[in-house]
């Protein structure tokens, strides 16, 4: 009996290893960005799935936390997908910004750069652009306001309902 394997466009094992990713790479399938190692996915409708995958990598480069899954970065940048669906100017800002990143990165694009230092150098070049400021400014809230992440950073949430910080050891932070 002969087994026939379906040939699909994608990256080869060699290309995956050459890119030097930490964990599994994000896979783009149709209108979705999928993380096979963490079992999550995100459908896109307004922005290209490649754009969303690059936004996730960009978010991780702007606010790097190695112990945090890409899923939380995907949640943080999903707002750009939503806004792009109703605001053509925002869609253009994001799509053109990602295209510029890919152009600056060279043949394999921004996600294809294996070294974080190379990606950060590109980000330093564009940090004053409206695109970068829009993404960075949104991430401050959309990433760090995810309650599932608060324990990772040692934040217990609001304290008013528990008597305030003064009575609960406001200066007991251990990770600083």
Automatic annotation (TrEMBL):
<keyword id="KW-0614">Plasmid</keyword>
<dbReference type="InterPro" id="IPR006311">
    <property type="entry name" value="TAT_signal"/>
</dbReference>
<protein>
    <submittedName>
        <fullName>Gluconate 2-dehydrogenase subunit 3 family protein</fullName>
    </submittedName>
</protein>
């Amino acid at each position: 009996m002969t087994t026939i394997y379906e040939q699909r466009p994608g990256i080869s094992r060699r290309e995956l290893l050459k890119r030097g990713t930490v964990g599994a790479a994000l896979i783009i399938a149709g209108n979705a960005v999928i993380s096979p190692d963490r079992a999550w996915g995100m459908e896109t409708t307004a922005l290209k799935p490649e754009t969303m995958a690059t936004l996730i990598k960009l978010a991780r480069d702007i606010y790097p936390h190695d112990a945090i899954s890409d899923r939380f970065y995907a949640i943080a940048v999903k707002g750009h997908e939503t806004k792009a669906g109703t605001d053509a100017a925002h869609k253009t800002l994001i799509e053109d910004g990602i295209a510029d990143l890919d152009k600056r990165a060279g043949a394999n694009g921004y996600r294809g750069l294996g070294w974080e230092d190379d990606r950060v150098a590109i980000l330093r070049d564009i940090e004053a652009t409206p695109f970068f400021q829009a993404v960075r400014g949104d991430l401050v809230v959309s990433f760090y306001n995810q309650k599932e992440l608060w324990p990772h950073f040692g934040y217990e949430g609001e304290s008013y309902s528990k008597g305030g910080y003064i009575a609960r050891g406001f200066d007991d932070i251990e990770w600083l």
